Amino acid sequence: MDKISITANRADKLLLKEYIKYLIKEVKNIEEVDGYINFLRKCEKSITEFMGVEDTLLVNSGTDAIQLSLLSLNVKKGDEVIIPATTYISVALAVWYTGAKVVPVDISEEDMLIDAGKLKRKITPKTKVIIMVHMFGHSCKIDEIVNIAKEYNIKIIDNACQAIGTKYKNKRVGSFGDIGTLSFSYAKTISSFSGNGGAVLLKNKNDKERIRENFLDIFKGRNGLFKLDRKFHNISFLDALTVYVKLKHFNEIEEKKILLRKIYEKELREVNEVTIFPDSDDSVTVRPCFFILAEKRDSLIKYLYRKGIVCESSYPPLVVFKKFGKFNYNEFNVAFKCWKMGLRLPLFSYMEPGEAVRVCKEIKNFYARKK
Prior knowledge:
Blueprint: E1 4-5, H1 10-14, H2 16-27, H3 33-51, E2 55-59, H4 62-72, E3 80-84, H5 89-98, E4 101-105, E5 127-133, H6 142-152, E6 155-159, E7 167-168, E8 171-172, E9 179-183, E10 198-202, H7 205-216, H8 237-248, H9 250-268, E11 274-275, E12 283-284, E13 289-294, H10 297-306, E14 309-310, E15 312-313, H11 333-341, E16 342-346, H12 353-369
Parallel strand pairs: 1-14, 3-4, 3-5, 5-6, 6-9
Antiparallel strand pairs: 2-10, 7-8, 7-12, 9-10, 11-13, 13-16, 15-16
Helix pairs in contact: 2-8, 3-8, 4-5, 9-12
């Protein structure tokens, strides 16, 4: 029985010949450093056009993209940055690296994303940025969050690391804030060959060179390396190339993922022990996984693993990490519920419909045998 894994990336196997074709083509143009830089600019242009932004800066990781975005907005020690209580820890770490205070907000029962209704009570005179994180391929309530940010003169980082391709009101998420971020790590809809790489999405072309000069090209100056606690890096050639090729095939990847999402929704809708999260009326999701809440979640994970299906639990609430401060756990009931019951099911590029049906069948079998 073939194993179905949440991190499987069948696209790399199917597109391998194209990687080689583009590798040979592009390497011929690289006789010196400028050739590599020109290739990166071509990749950045393809992302810019895909995302509908003014410009793109490719970097080493999604975490770097978030931290560079914070630095470009002049976030520093003493400032406060609002983020959802449930997200990958790198979001909070990027804030922590700047010296700013991490301010988590509980998530909503409706979609497991930051609860826009609880945002205002977390805003103080020190609040500088809201990181709007689109989790599990879902879109946040963008209009509400943007309006709150405008009311209080707060900047927004539109984090689409887990929602590459998702649209809100026919516009791709990641393009709604003052600056946006992408990640190309494993299990993302568009992942790089080695799992590294990220992008900063820019609304102003001038910001690109400003970020490069202040944070990426600092080695060029005599005292540049003394400016930061660590050095940021560009994306590697091979990682940029695989992202470039996958973007050319995005329509077929998107079509397959939407088909798989609909299979999951149809098959699991009537399973009483499972909660699914359909698309909102304003959005069309392209999901890196299919996220559910499941009763007896840990036992279900073990059962699915025995059946050759590898899935992953949800992230712990950020408030459990003492590095970020002391918090009242009672304010984050939904985040803790998500941690206890959240489950990410496989939904990778070029996954076969029959594999999604098989996952759903085994979930049904698990709950049927428990009755």
